[in-house]
Amino acid sequence: MKRERLLKRLEERLQVEFKDPSLLERVFVHSSYANEKKAEGLESNERLEFLGDAVLSAIISDILYRAFPHLDEGRLTRIRARVVNRKVLAEVSEGLELGGLLLLGRGEEKAGGRKSASILADTLEALIAAIYLDRGYRKTYQTIKRLFSPLIALYSEKEVYFDFKPILQEIAQKHFKEAPQYRVIKEEGPSHKKIFSVEVVLKGRVLGRAKAGRKKTAEQLSARSAIEVLKKEGYTL
After folding, report:
1. Which residues pair with 200 in a beta bridge?
2. Taking the complete model, does pTM exceed 0.85, yes or no?
3. 125 catalytic, yes or no?
């Protein structure tokens, strides 16, 4: 019963209700456990890991492509590499408490497999594949975006250095005779990994919002969003 409650709590945290509960169970079957239970015909999560790795990479690539239209392929690749790094995936896995649900062989259990970064990262990939197979691409995309957006904001900073604020300032002065205002609307995360949410306002209207690990970066990204909005409305330099 305890395991059922933990699985249910995971579904609630993910905002995903599995149609096939056996698929969710398979996420946590490590190969060491499956080998010990060969007589039961259990399938390990290795095939799910394989699929999840590809799905995660594709969706993160799509998110980055849409979020940073000004970045070239090299910079996008570097951000993706940081976000899907095994250590980062293990941290996300720990945050979801996946280790406590793992089914491990006796040897792997004694070796501390529940806290192994490699196993935790693999388990997260298996979970992503299970969501994809059970609920489809759209739900998987939403889940990954919710889990990884703060990390994308954090790890994209070194690559996002375009100076959008002066451009927005010029557009605002030219067409509205008023300077845009930036304000922090939310701060989240621990002090060493704080994420700032910033919005830019012009004449009482919110034109852009963005998140980043530094307030200045969030301001730049929100300014970029505002420029895109104004450009569509015909306001340019």
Report:
1. 182, 208
2. no
3. yes
